[in-house]
Amino acid sequence: MKQLLLQYMTRLTSLSEGEQQAILDEILVEEYSKGTVLLRQGEVPGKCYFVLRGCVRQHSVDVAGRDITSNFYTEEQAIAIFNAHKQEASSEYSLTCLENCVLVVGALDTEQDMYARHTQLELMTRRMIEENFGQVQAEFAAFIAASPEDRLKALLHRRPGLISRVPQHQLASYLGMTPESLSRIKKRLEREHAQPGL
């Protein structure tokens, strides 16, 4: 499983094999069962994660009591709640494992110490965040301008495996539509796909 991290280190840093191995030896990899809550809305985040295997849902309960899905994290995606800049450090989101997961776990309180000992690790982390942030910005801009059907099409193009991995009501929430609308759109797209040219 740590092989994935090794690929990132090779691509995003110029660390020697020995330095890479030293970092891999320090990194904590944990397994979590489906349904495990990694962080509850209102708690102060103390950890960040990198998904080696599985799917983690980011969600929150709004003032009306609705459970809103804002993201799904799957293989090779980093999970971090950036709120250190806020006076109130508690998380606005919960993080829940939708599948059995294997995650790299980083403790936020020891992060700076690790960066001090492995300066290129900080560079790698920053580059990963920059890549992810650029992607999120582009996806958010497209999401706002898109119709519900176009949102689903974009998701099927970008993350085709996700639709079969997560419950439909959570997927509908993520796409900003009702489960009934999602079902109708999926059926229409399936009919169009089955009858090209019509």
Automatic annotation (TrEMBL):
It comes from the Bacteria. Signal peptide: none annotated. Keywords: Activator. InterPro entries: cNMP-bd_dom (IPR000595), cNMP-bd_dom_sf (IPR018490), RmlC-like_jellyroll (IPR014710). Transmembrane segments: none annotated. The keyword Methyltransferase does not apply. Residues 11-57 form the Cyclic nucleotide-binding domain. This is Cyclic nucleotide-binding protein. The lineage of its organism: Bacteria, Bacillati, Bacillota, Bacilli, Bacillales.
